[in-house]
Amino acid sequence: MPRASKMYRHLLILANPVIKSFDHALADAYADVVRSYRQDVEIRDLNALGFDPVLKAHERPGAATPVLAPDVEAEVAEIAASDAIVLVYPIWFGGPPAILKGYVDRVFGAGYTFRQFREGAGQPHLKGKLLVSITTSGTSLPWLGERGQVISLREGFDVYLERGFGMHDSEHVSIDNVVPNLSARYAAEQIRRVQDTAKQTCAKLFDRGRVNEGLAFSSGDEVT
């Protein structure tokens, strides 16, 4: 018999300090869909974890091998065991919260030099993984677009990270007008968008797995 398909894993990195925020609801909605597809999901709530976003001098890759702190090693292991990386965060002053940027600095970039990033060599624990971003904003997309924020975040964060670390398919779901007393109808519409994104990501992982299994079989693996 052919080998059973692997259990695909989504690592959802949540960066909103407000307990029960709309970002938390979106993260839960994404995770519920993943589980319904019989795939695995792990939510890393950076604020709840008390993650330290400050990059230390000894963690920077250079002439000497960088020394990684236990919290960074733990997150690197979480990423290495995952197939899709999902970022969920609010847009603050034109970019992601500091805690998420610090996560990129310390965890995404762990042991990775700027030359490797520039050349797109591929960070071992990130290379080939799917990248999905889900962002919320209190202002409207047209307002953000007029100020160049939408394209700058997309190109300067998502695509930049994807290419530098060797990731794939950076998809960005932008949800605007997230304000207090958000209408139930609008909230439900946005949750459905996130659920659709989760379904599409699950399907992408499954399709990629089928292709990889087919290549493995055709290259000499025995099938009994």
Structure description:
The protein is an alpha/beta fold and 224 residues long. It has helices at residues 22-36, 46-49, 70-80, 98-108, 114-119, 141-146, 149-165, 184-218, and strands spanning 9-14, 40-45, 84-90, 130-136, 168-175. Strands 2-1-3-4-5 form a 5-stranded parallel β-sheet, sandwiched between helices. Helix 1 (22-36) links the parallel strand 1 and strand 2 (40-45). The longest helix is centred in the last third of the chain and has 35 residues, at 184-218. The protein is globular, with a radius of gyration of 18 Å. The relative contact order is 0.17.
Short précis:
Helices cover 47% and strands 15% of the residues. It has helices at 22-36, 46-49, 70-80, 98-108, 114-119, 141-146, 149-165, 184-218, and strands spanning 9-14, 40-45, 84-90, 130-136, 168-175. Helix 1 (22-36) links the parallel strand 1 (9-14) and strand 2 (40-45).
Number of strands: 5
Q: Which bin fits the share of residues in helices?
A: 40-55%
Structural class of the helix and strand makeup? alpha/beta
Q: Any idea what the CATH superfamily is called? A: Flavodoxin domain
Name of the top-level CATH class: Alpha Beta
Largest sheet: 5 strands, parallel
Count structural domains: 1
Strand percentage lies at 15-25%
Number of helices: 8
Overall spatial form:
globular
CATH architecture: 3-Layer(aba) Sandwich
User: What order do the strands of the largest sheet run in, or round the barrel if closed?
Assistant: 2-1-3-4-5
Point out poorly predicted stretches: 216-220
Q: Could you say what the CATH topology is called?
A: Rossmann fold
Secondary-structure element series: EHEHHEHHEHHEH
Rounded average pLDDT: 87
Rg over CA atoms, rounded to whole Å, is 18 Å
Distance between the termini: 5 Å
